[in-house]
Amino acid sequence: MITLYGAGANFGVPEVSPYVTKTEVHLRMAGLPYVKEAAMPHLSPKGQLPWLDDDGELIADSHFIRLHLEKKYAVDFDEGLSLAERAQAWAIERMVENHFGWTLAHVRWLIPENYAKGPAQFFAALPPTLQEDMRRDIQGRVAENIRAAGVGRHSEPEILSLGVRSLAALSALLGAKPFLMGCRPSGVDAIAFGMLAGLMAPYFDAPIRERAMSFRNLVAYVDRMMAGVYPEFDWAPLAPARETMAA
């Protein structure tokens, strides 16, 4: 039995964390049955989401979960790609995860209005005397991580320009193809989809979201991936940003 530990649906997407989304997409691409449970990051072997319990074997981090799935279940998420194409897919994945991803973190955690109706609500179940302290503490830690990654050292216009450049690169790489590497989805589509869906969802408002929605092929790509991977989810990216936390 495979158990995937993640954050769960919220913020207008079927999974809050794009890294958990990556793993969930890989599981669905592989046709592997699994159950999903909500969990807090500090419970993970590496202190972050996602992690997997595969018949008692714990694997943390979406990349190493992918390697585990490929090895144990004889799955090749890059089947059909040449060595050069596999290298390109890896480079795209690193751009999305290690650079562009911090743009999404900035949108959710460091724009005050978005933080208040989004991540700040993670602590709503705590006693009122603890809520604000936890909200300030965790937001501060995330801000430190965004700064350590380099993105948080820049001004708002500079962060926007970096994000738009990554969006333009993804749009150019995708072109008229249905998926990033061709006619069928590959491993890199899992994280590109997760990150783009998290940005395009109408729950949060930010200039980078407006710019993302202007790349028509990226919008169509996310729609296509959502329909294929999460057909049960009510995806409505063209709706205006919501003002309150989902019930």
Can you walk me through this structure?
The protein has 247 residues and is an alpha+beta fold. It folds into two domains: 2-73, Glutaredoxin (3-Layer(aba) Sandwich); 83-229, Glutathione S-transferase Yfyf (Class Pi), Chain A, domain 2 (Up-down Bundle). 53% of the residues lie in helices and 7% in strands. A four-stranded mixed β-sheet has the order 2-1-3-4, covered by helices on one side. Helix 1 packs parallel to helix 2 (62-73), helix 3 packs across helix 5 (128-148) and helix 3 runs antiparallel to helix 6. The protein starts with a strand and ends in an 18-residue tail after the last helix. Mean pLDDT is 94; it is low at 241-247.
Short recap of the structure:
Helix content is about 55%, strand content about 5%. It is α+β, with helices and mostly antiparallel strands and about 250 residues long.
Outline the fold blueprint.
Layout: E1 2-6, H1 18-30, E2 35-38, E3 51-54, E4 57-60, H2 62-73, H3 83-109, H4 112-117, H5 128-148, H6 156-174, H7 187-200, H8 207-212, H9 216-229
Parallel strand pairs: 1-2
Antiparallel strand pairs: 1-3, 3-4
Give me the secondary-structure category.
alpha+beta
What is the H-and-E element order? EHEEEHHHHHHHH
CATH class division of the largest domain: Mainly Alpha
Strand residues, percent? 5-15%
Helix content: 40-55%
Quote the average pLDDT: 94
Largest sheet: 4 strands, mixed
> What is the total tally of β strands?
4
User: Order of strands across the biggest sheet?
Assistant: 2-1-3-4
Number of helical stretches of at least 4 residues: 9
The stretches of 5 or more residues where confidence is low (pLDDT under 50) are: 241-247
> Alpha-carbon distance between the termini?
31 Å
How does CATH name the architecture of the largest domain?
A: Up-down Bundle
CATH fold description of the largest domain:
Glutathione S-transferase Yfyf (Class Pi), Chain A, domain 2
Q: Any idea how many domains?
A: 2
* Overall form: globular
From the alpha-carbon coordinates, what is the Rg to the nearest angstrom? Answer: 18 Å
